[in-house]
Amino acid sequence: MGDLSVERQRKFDSVIVSLVGTFDSTTAARVEETLEEIRSRLGERVIFNLYECEYIDEAGLGRLIDLRKSLQEQQREMELYVRPMSFVAHRTRQLPQTDPPADLAALGEERLAERRAQRLERWRSEKPIPREETEESDSRPASEEGLIPIDFGRVASLAGKDERVVREIWRTYSRLLESGQLESPDEATPEKQLTRDSRTVAHELRLEPGVVQRVIETVSSHLMEVFGEEGD
Question: How far apart are CA 227 and CA 162, in angstroms?
Answer without folding.
Answer: 24
